[in-house]
Amino acid sequence: MSLKSIGLGLLASTVIAGGAHAATLDIAIDSSPAGLDPHLITAFNSVVIVQGNIYEALTAIDRDLNVVPGLAESWDVSEDGLTYTFHLREGVTFHDGSEMTAEDVAASIRRVQSETVASPLASRVSPITGIEVVDPQTVRFTLDAPFAPILSSLSSIAIVPAEMEEDVDSLQQTPVGTGPFHFEDWQPNGYIALSSFEDYHEDGQPLLEGVRFNFVPESATRQVGVVSGDYGLLPGIDPATALQLQGQPGVTVQETRDLSYTLVGMNVTREPFDDPAVREAFNLALDRQEIIDGALFGAGVPAGPLSPALTSWALDPSEYSCYGADPEAARAMLEEAGVALPVQLTMNVLPRQDARDIAQIVQQQAAEAGFEIELINQEIGQFVQDWRNSNFDLFVSANGGSPDPDEYFYRTFYGGGSTNVFGYADAEIDAWLDEGRSETDQGARKAIYDQVQRKLACEGPIAHVAYGSLFTAVNDAVEGFEIYPNGRLTSLVDVEIAE
Amino acid sequence: MSSRFLVTRLIDLAVVLFGVSIVVFLMIRLIPGDAVAIMLGANTEITPERIAELERRVGLDQPILIQYFNWFTGLFRGDLGTSIWTGRPVAAEIAANIWPTFELTFLSVLVGAGLSIPLGAFMAQARGKGAEVAVRIGAIAGLTIPSFWLGIVSIFLLSKLLPGFSALGYVPFTEDPLGNLQRMILPVIALSLPMLANLSRLVRSAMLDALGQDYIRTAKAKGASKRRLVYRHAMRNALIPFITSVGVATGYLLGGAIVVEQVFAIPGLGRLVLGAIAERNYPLVQATILVMTSAFVIVNFLVDLLYAVIDPRVSRR
Amino acid sequence: MMEFIRKNKLLTFALGFVAIQVLLAIFAPVVALHDPYAQVMVERMKGPNLTNWLGTDQLGRDVLARILFGYQVSLMTCVTAVGLALVAGGTLGMLAAFYGGWLDRVLMRVMDVLFAFPIMLLAIGVIAVLGPNVWSAAIAIAIVYTPIFARLLRGPALVICESEYVMGARAIGASDGRIVFLHLLPNLASVILVQTSLLLSAAILVEASLSFLGLGAQPPVPSLGLMLSEGRNFLLLSPWPAIFAGFAILFLSFGFNLLGDALRDTLDPRLKNAS
Question: What is the ipTM of this complex?
Fold first, then answer.
């Protein structure tokens, strides 16, 4: 009783104290990033803070996943598809006050390509073999071969000041970009604070005075926080959290189709998955809708190799013959392939609630077809290590997607591709993928990737499970936020907080 | 107290810290996956040469003995190392996270130890009565209630009962004293409850012991003020175990309260080291654990010294 | 018998409380009405009802069945852990006391090193090395508790070793083993009994905390800590699994703690005199 009155007294004091910070948006994410260098740290909790807020790129991705102008106002592509000329926006300054010119753009691309910086983003710009500064507002890239996805790839390459080209340390702690917010303060384990950049090139933006990314590891705490208004925004929440917050007063949950997807990977260098028929049988044994209902609370769609968010590319999963959810047929197929049932397998599980739930349901479903799966729940370090060393029979994981099919397919399914940990090698697929990346005609590319999708869906090394929904919970005091399918907080420039 | 006693204890202390440094150093390196693998995560496209370059940059390419030697000699130069990706001095990261831990420790010990004396005395005097059994069972429940459960449930209840009451996160006391204390209420309850339960039982036994002594019975028969006598005798009796318990609890609390910090989003040492383990930030893990264990060992050393002052026989042992 | 119960009401109650839970754990396969692993999607996240007395979890599994099997998992983990710690720590502590000198100093410093680590951190480190599962959790808890038993038993063992009758036994040439088993162990029995019970109670909480951080038992194993940990993600939708699992942990830990407390009162002769 007395505790309650003390509480009310304290409450009054918070309200008064709260008024002064009204124009700062508090965002809660689960953990602090390992660093802020946009060319080095590519994990979600880093990207969500820096990309689009502190840094911008030559191109940008809009809500419908189209490539739109960013720091480049416009661009010309040569007939042969080998030369790209970018015309830069005028009057753009970095947070340190210097002007952004073609030199900075050239230096940023070189920085990503440099062996000493060792950026994990390098492969996205590896087709660029020539970088030429035409004049301070114009930069020209030459490619070794036509590479259709380059414009979308460039949207993920942050432009940094030219003097950072050789510097591998400074940007980790103190980022300098051209974005609407500049870096202010980093309290380890507490928060990262950004404040609005007065010389931002779009007049009148951003509307907020600042943004604060609070690190809140406990999901239950984040949920309570967004309901109570301690936090204005929870980006990238899981379906279970979204479902719970949907019913709460004072909170709106925004939803969009996610580019990322959950999958079961198969090691094709080991028995029995070296046989395409067994991979097909595994696909046949899965009831994707049941998995979605169970593990993702209905928030998702059965997955083929490409996300339905890529409306101009993806085939409808109903086109795949092996998506029958028919364990009996799967068992028959296995027996025909000469597999002695039940076949004993292990499955590594990514340490995430949705992956764990998916694994438990897949285990039950596959058992009906004769796969006896033991789940191995791993700590993330072990999971990554086993993944990189192809040390698994099966694994359940989640991958971020990309706007262009080539980015995902080429590295994952091409023989010897850099993330082809499955040991998959198929001459037909390799030929199609080579064709697909050098073809620039959209219609012809689509025809090629249709073939690829059909083949990979059933006998590829990955059983694509589901494309989930991407959710962001927004407290009702926050106005103007719009969710983007790539998970970026691009719309923060338009956000206001109601008094 | 004899200087020989002091010297022996100091040598022990140094030996223990040296042992800790070796255990920490080896343990964190035995965990699968290094900082580079964790930073890249699964499904990142990268060449082995670039991975090697990243490992070189964070010093993982050196032989393990050299790594230990460099770290250990650095300690004597007052250099705790630098955080693996941000390059920030580890000392600065620890400094930024140590105040919440200090404050939580101080308040929890204050509440837990402070309330334990009257509660323990009450239990002893009401021995065998219904009230004592109730308090005693309550004390045990306080000791055995899972703190994360208590934390989460209380956050949920609070958000229902007092919407708008900010109980999450941490605000420095110097910035907003009321906001600071208000955010400390729930975590301090969660942390002091087990201590209160433990210490009050200790006080209870000491009191019962005192009540059973012949001279108290004699004094009581003579009509002396029983309460004063019992308190004085029991307190003297309970002092050493009481101080030990408070010392151990303080030492552990200074090591951070991982689960409570996690639930209430408090940026203390526990979360610092948990995050550092998760990202395999070897220098940060090593230094933070060394700081925590030093705090623990030093607090216990001070407790030992205190004994020697209270009871000179100890130092002659 | 009745006399004992009348004199030791608290102890009897504690014994009964613990015994019920242990029996439920042992006979879980007989007592449980449902398969703790069976998923019934249409029935998920239901509150308590006639079919599922304590409701169902996020995958439609019966909460009561999972709690009963969860008792089994928690008890097995913690009894193994505390048992290992008792054997290891007790042996080290008595060796140190019995032989003294350099062995004593070295052993006790090693114990000090382990003791100086924050409990949860040492356990987290050990599990991170071994990989997260039930047995790693048991080994981690055993390592954390070894120095506690070592320190705890060394003190009283030292006193007994220096006592006249042990000195006497040594003088007439009794073997070391004989002294340990005939003199040392029986005299330490009450300390061991009380502390084992109290540490079991604490171990149950540590195991639950580890599971809460995702480092103990792993899905789909029914474990109390894991149920609580998974359940807390669904608190607003269906608080039942988290609430019941929380109470189960509390009851189990409470039972052993009360038992330890009651045993201490009963076995400690000094407290008997108090009026």
Answer: 0.83
